[in-house]
Amino acid sequence: MKPVEWIEFQDHHRYRVHELRRIARTMQAAGAEALVTTEKDSVNLCDDYDELCAPLPIYWLQIGMRIEREEEFVKEIEQLIHRRGAEPPRKHP
């Protein structure tokens, strides 16, 4: 799938009916085959989003994060916290 357009909204934006209709029309006119958002933002879609955007389906991406050298990173954060006089959080069993 190749993106045909990109529309950005502020974080935590609640998508309204007229916005989804406009997005669907704009994307369909641009030749889109589907709409894509993040899983995090999918919870902000209004009711009946699938009907409002038809015939374009909406897919959402599940995004994760991995920290390379995580143990080293955590130790560095703990040292910074300790230098500032705060206790690092205790590990829970």
Summarize the topology.
Layout: H1 17-29, E1 35-38, H2 39-42, H3 49-53, E2 58-61, H4 70-83
Parallel strand pairs: 1-2
Characterization of this structure:
The protein is mostly helical and 93 residues long. It has 4 helices and 2 strands, in the order αβααβα. It has helices at residues 17-29, 39-42, 49-53, 70-83; strands at residues 35-38, 58-61. A two-stranded parallel sheet has the order 1-2.
Brief description of this entry?
The protein has 4 helices and 2 strands. The chain has 93 residues and is mainly α.
List the main descriptive attributes of the protein structure presented here.
4 helices, 2 strands, mainly alpha, two-stranded parallel ribbon, 93 residues, single chain
Largest sheet: 2 strands, parallel
Overall body shape:
elongated
Strand content: 5-15%
Give the tally of β-strands.
2
* Oligomerization category of the chains in this entry: single chain
What is the string of helix and strand elements?
HEHHEH
Which residue ranges are poorly predicted, with pLDDT under 50 across at least 5 consecutive positions? none
Radius of gyration: 21 Å
| Spatial strand arrangement across the major sheet | 1-2
**Alpha plus pi helix count:** 4
**Roughly what is the average pLDDT, rounded to an integer?**
88
How far is the N terminus from the C terminus?
44 Å
Give the helix proportion (percent range).
Answer: 25-40%
Which class do the helix and strand fractions yield?
mainly alpha
